[in-house]
Amino acid sequence: MRVRIDNEKCQGHGRCYTLAPEVFGEDDEGFGTVIGEGVVSDEHTAAVHLAESNCPESAVIIEADA
């Protein structure tokens, strides 16, 4: 599984990096960023799904591995 943030939708609420700090970080303006290449390990899958479902703008995008 991979994850990304739609930068056009993100409003900087910070729920992604609060709920899954191992996967998400924040830039200098408080907008969410993905740490690394966006590949989610099995141990962080639940946290990423929680971040996705709690994003008010639906900016957290989960993509299945090809």
Structural description of this entry:
With 66 residues, this protein is of the alpha+beta class. 23% of the residues lie in helices and 21% in strands. It has two helices and four strands. The protein has helices at 15-19, 45-54, and strands at residues 2-5, 24-26, 32-34, 60-63. The protein has a two-stranded antiparallel ribbon. The longest helix has 10 residues, at 45-54. It is globular, with a radius of gyration of 10 Å.
Protein topology:
Layout: E1 2-5, H1 15-19, E2 24-26, E3 32-34, H2 45-54, E4 60-63
Antiparallel strand pairs: 1-4, 2-3
Topology order in helix (H) and strand (E) letters: EHEEHE
Q: Tell me how many strands there are.
A: 4
Mean pLDDT: 96
Instruction: Please mark out the parts with pLDDT under 50 across 5 or more consecutive residues, or reply none.
Output: none
Tally of separate helices: 2
Strand portion, in percent?
15-25%
Radius of gyration: 10 Å
Subunit organisation of the chains: single chain
Class from helix and strand fractions? alpha+beta
The level of helicity is 10-25%
- Quick one: biggest sheet? 2 strands, antiparallel
Strand line-up of the largest beta sheet: 1-4
Termini gap: 9 Å
Morphology call: globular
Question: Gist?
Answer:
23% of the residues lie in helices and 21% in strands. It is α+β, with helices and mostly antiparallel strands. The mean pLDDT is 96.
